[in-house]
Amino acid sequence: MKPQLINATPSRRSVLKGLTAGGALAVGGFPGFLQAQSSEPIKLGFQLHRTGIGAAYGRWYERTTQAALKVLNEAGGINGRPVEVIFEDDGTDPKRGSEVVEKLASQHGCDAIFGPLFSHVVIGSAPRAGELKVPYLVCSEGFHVASGMLNRWTLQPGITDVRAQVTAMAPWVTQTLGKKVTMVFPDYAFGHDHRDFFTAAVEAQGGEVIAQLAIPPTETSFTRYFPRIPAETEVLYHVMVGPAVLTFVKELGEFYGSGEKPQIFGFIDSLEAVDLASPGLEFLEGTHFWEGQCRTQQPDATEAEIAYRAAVGVDASGASVADPKDISTYSHMFSCWETLFILKAGMEAAGYQSTADRQKLVEAIEAMTTMSAGTEHPQGDKRFNGKTHQVFGHQFISRVEGGKLIRVHTTSLEDGMYDDMVDYTTQSF
What we know:
Layout: H1 12-18, E1 42-48, H2 55-74, E2 83-89, H3 94-107, E3 112-114, H4 119-132, E4 136-137, E5 154-155, H5 162-176, E6 180-186, H6 189-204, E7 208-215, E8 235-238, H7 245-256, E9 263-267, E10 288-291, H8 303-311, E11 319-320, E12 323-327, H9 330-350, H10 358-366, E13 370-371, E14 382-385, E15 390-392, E16 396-401, E17 404-410
Parallel strand pairs: 1-2, 1-3, 3-4, 4-5, 6-7, 6-8, 8-9, 9-10
Antiparallel strand pairs: 10-16, 11-12, 13-14, 14-15, 16-17
Helix pairs in contact: 1-8, 2-9, 3-4, 5-6, 9-10
């Protein structure tokens, strides 16, 4: 029997109740702004992919952050002070990203900066944040933070990295779908993380990656790549990003047609902001996807997750409540919400007053460990590693059933753990 989806829309009263209940970092009970030592707003900069190949994500990252900011300020802000978020577009471009960091830190005087997703932009921007000595909290998934290639001012406390994701899921993929894998991935840092770490994770399970297809992120048609998929492939693993993702999936379906095809396991990145009911995607029925947070509201959704979904304006199918054709980037955008509340917790623990306390803020976040599921962490409980500046969370594997993503497996926190490669806390500021 297929699980039934929850379709009821929560009332305003239940939403407000959910937004003030539960979680280790509950926002209720803050003093009024006038009781703070300073009534000046805390200014946070948001490095936004408003344009460029990350624009679909950027639109929902901005919307999610605005929703979180509203909840935070209605509950008293941070240390009794109102919070302002200044958004600057980086064009999903590394060079502009560095310039945006400079502008937010130097021109706007932001206390901290957060928000970038695309790994090449993070890698191009983080060095400038380190030079300016401004806390830089990325909402990305690359292994760049935990690898040690960045700096002590850069942290990723709101979303897991690719290495943890694929390490956690490889056992299920190889045991359930098959052991001979062909990978299709974008040819830049994010895709290379998938290539390297999923290959290693599959081999650790006794499987083998028999082909790797690296595709330039600017590619607009993919048909010339598909004949390179070996006939003996048991699992086709795909993770594509950018505005051409719908074309990629449609052309993949046309390539296989109604004939035999391997088991297909995709990262939802290949279909973020894309309606599963789009013409040409029928062949995805029965295939599987990784999700960072389940787009389709599941029967056991928590009160906090339902309240979060309502606050950001997303219905039970993952679309905007204002426009059913506007599909959210639900698997990633929670990172903005959670990172804002992590900044709140860090600033309160550090007794943050001004930019002179930026180092104290980083040290306070480094001291965090367990993050409990709840209002501030609607995706689920997490564990933060202060040495590597990386958080670990649950991963979800969903199956397409009737055009909906139905969760079939949830990993544990331990499933994604790996040995530390850096200890940022030993580095100087």
